[in-house]
Design goal:
6-stranded parallel beta sheet; 15 strands; binds (2R,3S,4s,5R,6S)-2,3,4,5,6-pentahydroxycyclohexanone
Length: 326
């Protein structure tokens, strides 16, 4: 029998997950929930699923083998918790929550239950360029510096909390998964548009083991690009360039960089979603954890604080619960 998957959130990200999952053998999206009835009906109709406007009921349904939470960020923690309490595996889009307190509740639940059931959508872990970089990094000796470059093409302005919580949160996780080191402190500086919204953000990230990292985030609006470079004791490595072909024509070299993360990370999302389905079948959760989501949120809050105070802010990461050790 096919795995029955409930999809919560029929926007861009939810639709992308739904179509990706629906293509996998032995997977059926049986219900699509969205607060907007027309959005739920449209995606459900396309997939032959039931439509619902009751996201909490879908999260808590005992008729599902897995739930994808891709609704607005401030609903993630509560819906994920509902699914976890029902004992249903969850693929939860990032961020885990919009506050450290809410993120902590999800981790505390999993720790109390003694079982990991949540995979967090930090999909860069499944991106080929990042996986290749990770392989190389292992050969280069102790890490000194990680440089993350992230150009976004949202085309709309966001509050500082949203920009850091939705975008920079990825770079924070990249630094952690590439180095295996923990974040200890951050300091941030931003340039702003005339409206006051951040345009360009620089973050210095201090790591344990005397390493450090920088995040250069640009809410550019004209291109989407993500690069990472690691400088280590015996060499350095950088992710490959944009995905498009290099075209020589009329005396020019042109290379498309793309305008959104769906294009750049399409393969990563597919690999991530396939890994999640496999984990439901094997009964062993894999990939980025609720703990990773919580630590990233603690660093997000510290960056926001640093922007307000203008100085370095420590990142008080608690002791990692044994559940998340491997
Ligand atoms: C967006 O929400 C994402 O998750 C993308 O991966 C990220 O690159 C972008 O900056 C975010 O706005």
């Amino acid at each position: 029998m096919s795995l029955r998957i409930g999809l919560i959130g029929a926007g861009g990200m939810g639709s992308f997950h739904a179509r990706t999952l629906a293509e996998l053998p032995g997977v059926a999206i049986t219900v699509v929930a969205d607060a907007v009835p027309a959005a739920a009906a449209r995606l459900a109709g396309e997939l032959g699923a039931e439509a619902s406007t009751d996201s909490a009921a879908v999260a808590g349904s005992s008729q599902l083998d897995g739930v994808v939470v891709a609704s607005p960020d401030d609903t993630h923690a509560a819906l994920a918790l509902t699914a976890l309490k029902t004992g249903t595996p969850v693929l939860c889009e990032k961020p885990l929550a919009t506050s450290v307190a809410d993120g902590r509740r999800v981790v505390e639940h999993e720790v109390g239950a003694g079982r990991r059931l949540l995979q967090l959508g930090f999909m860069r872990e499944y991106d080929f360029a990042h996986m290749q970089l990770l392989e190389q990094v292992g050969e280069l000796g102790p890490i000194h510096h990680v440089r993350c470059v992230h150009l976004n093409a949202n085309g709309f302005e966001r509050s500082t909390e949203l920009l850091v919580g939705q975008s920079v949160v990825h770079d924070l996780h990249t630094i952690r998964f590439l180095t295996g080191l923990e974040i200890t402190a951050v300091a941030a500086s931003a340039t702003r548009r005339s409206s006051g919204a951040i345009r360009h953000l620089l973050v210095v990230v201090w790591l344990d083991d005397h390493a450090h990292a920088t995040i250069e985030f640009d809410d550019a609006g004209y291109a989407y690009e993500v690069h990472v470079e690691v400088v280590a004791e015996h060499g350095s490595a950088v992710t490959g360039g944009p995905v498009g072909p290099e075209v020589r024509r009329a005396g020019m070299i042109r290379r498309p960089v793309g305008t959104d993360w769906f294009g750049r990370f399409a393969g990563a999302y597919r690999t991530q979603d396939t890994a999640w389905i496999r984990s439901i079948r094997t009964g062993a959760a894999t990939g980025p954890t609720a703990w990773d989501g919580l630590v990233a949120l603690i660093a997000v809050e510290a960056i926001v604080k640093s922007l307000a105070t203008g100085g370095p802010v420590s990142v008080p990461v608690p002791k990692r619960p044994a559940l998340y050790d491997s």
